[in-house]
Amino acid sequence: MSPYKIKHTGFYDKSFQETDTENYILTVSIGSRSVVFNLYDPENRKFIGFETFSSDELEKTSTIAGQLDFLLKKRPWLNSSFYHINLIFNNDLSTLIPQPLFDEKEKAAYLRFNQPGQKNNSVECNIMKNMQLANVYFMPVRVINKAIEIWPEVKFYHYSSVLIESLGINFKNKTENQTLFVNLRDEVFDVVNFKEGKLNFYNSFRFKAVEDFIYFMLAAIEQLQLNPEEARIVLSGNMDKSDEKYEMVYRYIRHFEFIERNETFHYSYVMEELNFAKYYVEFNVIQCE
């Protein structure tokens, strides 16, 4: 990661101590262009640390395992024991299976039915008990081995597993069927809809141009037979008000809003300026444990 120009953001509460890692929950989220981590103090139910390193030039999956080496070089204290460690892997190579129909022995077959085979990748699975779903996904073997080498007790999650399950938990009985959750990633966005408290629709869409983004979103609204005048869009992920995609949403969608941070938890005052909607998944994985 170091040969590239790195964008960095970081916040630490004054209570944070590098020597107290055994008392913190560490969440690390890695994708092709960024690595994000936060620290949670379970005793005080409070997030006390957050950092992100990113570069638009990082696009090769083979580079992702190296991001963990980069992270340890920048923050050597991360190579310590923690109360619990979550690692979120961000790609769009996953598929959902209803849990009653799921057979662990067939997980590779499920995935390859919907996704092309990936060399040097392992087939992993998250069971979303709250959703009665299994999420099967590809994850690079190098990333798995490197993470286990650093944190032997690490727990792996796919990005979409956390997104779906946390939305289901946080918004259970709080949304109408007309609510559509739209989460932006790099060149991919997720669409999630619940009906009567259960997952009704999930899909991820690849896009290049902003016109593609709004086209697929409007197509999803039509497919779900939502009323365009009444549909409520809740935005999260890699978007802000200066984004061209936001301008498209503003132009074509009548009712929309950014997702709010989860007030079940406490947050250090140093994070007041942080865009929590952008890092919704990273700040909500704890509920999925």
Distance between the termini: 30 Å
The topology string of helices and strands comes to EEEEHEEHEEHEHEEEHEHEE
Write out the CATH superfamily name of the largest domain.
ATPase, nucleotide binding domain
Content-based structural category = alpha/beta
Largest sheet, strands/sense/barrel: 7 strands, mixed
- What CATH architecture of the largest domain do you see? 2-Layer Sandwich
CATH fold-level assignment of the largest domain: Nucleotidyltransferase, domain 5
The averaged pLDDT comes out at 92
* CA-atom Rg in angstroms: 19 Å
Question: Low-confidence parts lasting 5 or more residues at pLDDT below 50?
Answer: none
Strand content: 25-35%
The count of domains is 2
Identify the CATH class of the largest domain: Alpha Beta
- The number of distinct β-strands equals 15
Description of the structure:
The protein is of the alpha/beta class. It has 2 domains: about 150 residues, Nucleotidyltransferase, domain 5, CATH 3.30.420; about 80 residues, Protein of unknown function DUF3822, C-terminal domain (Nucleotidyltransferase, domain 5, 2-Layer Sandwich), CATH 3.30.420.260. It is about 20% helix and about 35% strand. Strands 1, 2, 3, 4, 5, 9 and 15 form a 7-stranded mixed sheet that branches. A hairpin with a 3-residue loop joins strand 2 and strand 3. The longest helix has 14 residues. The model has no long low-confidence stretch (mean pLDDT about 90).
